[in-house]
Design brief:
30 helices, alpha/beta, 18% strand, 7-stranded mixed sheet, 870 residues, binds iron/sulfur cluster
Amino acid sequence: MIRTTCPYCGVGCGLKITPDGKGGADVVGDPDHPANRGRICSKGAALGETLSLEDRLLHPEVDGRHVSWDSALDTVADGFREIVTRHGPDTVAFYVSGQLLTEDYYAANKLIKGFIGTANIDTNSRLCMASSVAGHKRAFGSDTVPGLYEDFELADLVVLVGSNLAWCHPVLFQRLEAAKRVRPAMRIVVVDPRRTETCDIADLHLGLRPGSDVALFNALLAELQRRGATAKRFVDKHTVGMDDALIAARASDVGQCDLPKADLETFFDWFARTEKTVTLYSQGVNQSSAGVDKVNALINCHLLTGRIGRPGMGPFSITGQPNAMGGREVGALSNTLAAHMDFALEDVGRVGRFWNTNRVPRKAGLKAVELFEAVRAGRVKAVWIMATNPVASLPNADAVRAALAACELSVVSEAIRASDTVDACRVRLPALAWAEKNGTVTNSERGISRQRPFLPPPGEARQDWWIIAEVARRLGHGEAFAWKGVADIFREHARLSAFENDGQRDFDIGAYADIDDSAYDSLKPFVWPAAKGSHPTTTRFFADGGFFHSDGRARFIATAAREPLHAPSTEWPIRLNTGRVRDQWHTMTRTAKSPRLAGHRPEPTIELNAIDAAQRGLQDGDIAEVISAWGRAALRVHLSRALRQGEAFAPMHWTAQLSRAGRINAAVNPAVDPISGQPELKHTPVEVRRVAVQWHGTILARRPIMLPAVTYWARIRGAGCHAYLLAGEQPLASARRALSAAMRTANPGPWVDGEDALGAVISDGRLEAVMRIGKAHDETARDRLAPFMAVAQLDSEQRCVLLHGGDAADRGGEICACLGVSNASVQAAIANGAMTLDAVGAVTKAGTSCGSCRPEIRALLRAARPRQAA
Ligand code: SF4
């Protein structure tokens, strides 16, 4: 058994892994890890299904040809050297990732900032929490998360702002849910324009108008002061700027939040009267052109009440990625240096002394969106992308693809071959994946954990730090990168955190600067700070001041509410919000391999309010084109009661590999916060139009199919098969002919026509491929047909049911990914009298494993109660 850390969200759950010896593994939560105490969510539980080498990049490639490592590394080093020599260091850039381990991150940052001599390195965490970093630094003088996860459980009021915790950080949601079960008096407020699954446990949902968060928290600040909730001693002794912040707050108009007065009163009253209050916030706050002001507006309320750094209270930024915090620690954002230092002269000098270099740049580099704009404009001529997929994930994503096509030298280090970005880059360097990598990650509560390999390196893949060090050596900096392994890098990182620190900087893990290799191997999770000579402890920051501005005081920031940069208009009347769904992760390079994760949301959707849909002649299951001033995507329509009129939501996960037309980021606007540079991924004005498709189809096939040109397709994994969900504008008969030909090319055998628009390839009694195609969308076709693919040899009755209909199960989509329980099974249990979560669990087992589906089961229960009462 190996202890490691989950590679997905910023909760950073500990896992216990038992490899099966055949390339797979059993994955369970680690009961000894402080982040999750044995809990796990559906994504973590399905990790064992994502380990195959299918779609992996296993050999270095240059211009599409397999080359040796030496040749690939020479190409990278020679290219960077030549461009730097010709045009200067600011014409090259790295774009890295919160998926990198801290040691990999450290190596990348050291090479480009310390030795190439530019700060042009940015991380995809720019898309996730750059506004929090900037807000922290403005308020605290440092990028410090003051609290700990246990504060959610200790609080009497938890305010969740712009966070669908139930889907995006499920284990923290489980912890919160459990705490509320034990202490029902604990109050939970959700501040979110959407009524998400997180509202399931909320006492109050404030469905505010998108973008009006500053107005809300300004109103709260003014109200707290008016009601006498000011912690005068704390404010006088430890802060600066309250009066200006209050003047700005009073000038805000809370009416723009469009919230019921009674709900506002309740919220203000609870906040004013509850000492133990935590405000947890996430991408709904950060991904905005006013993200930094939103962060500071809510931090202001905690400074005013002195509720910070004590058990059960404080502002808490929760990160999206597993190692966003590690990236912040090593300085992988272009506007930070290393070990939480900046570009102040003394910091530049200190880092230069430590690395023994005089090349450390004196100014910040390009932030993600401007970095790729600079690539497109030719100002950046070489870019090295590591462990991330900007062609799919950055806003205005088609422009990123164009930028890479025009770039003199585009390099990608990646574990996955099937990636839009790998397709777009000239030099492809095979990197290790989660199961093979060795190092550390830091979660949202400053907890550093080991990630340990449990599978051997496949093909010629190498860990990122090794690749970076080899390029550094070829550039003539071998001595500074002569690490023998990850423990060497971790020790150096720890030494830098303590170097000339003396408590002046928050990030200090000097206690680990001299650990030996075996202590590193067996390192237990710990929360920083951990200065040399200190005892391991779980520390909060700022209960007694001690802020990191030069005077030791925090800053109130006067914030004025402002509209998103691109407001809806007559031409683009709908406000598009993007985000995650429960069972997928980022650009799906891993989660798409898991059949059970595919059951929850199998294709890219546009969620619409029923009124907006009706105005456009759209019904559930239609295909709609989402069009903006920047681009377009074609998605399946999903009507939702969670959205206000005029708003839409689309998951950000789908790439061209999985749905060529379904890349929503092609349509997302590239506006950024002026301070943090974080893109406004939650506010794109769009129009939504019905695509006049003539038919909808579902294909399941044992071997992948080369699809003919169709208007819309999405592909996912089924158990033992590939599933395709399709729709098209061409006539049904010709589409049917083209698709059946494609099926038979990849899955040879006799074609058999069935009833109800069904056709199949059945060879020697085994179902090789099956298609249902017709005028109407049949959402349950995949679930009905999948059981037949699992049968080794169809008997005559099964063949008859497949081709002519009968008692095949209508599963209606999966609700419990862990145990494969369908929506239909849960509905049947409820209809038969199971009217509580426990009762549904007892009958169907749904919700009894990781618990990620419990909010959806509760929603079905709620919907059923009025029916039963009637
Ligand atoms: Fe992984 Fe789920 Fe834990 Fe996040 S909550 S770290 S996705 S197991």
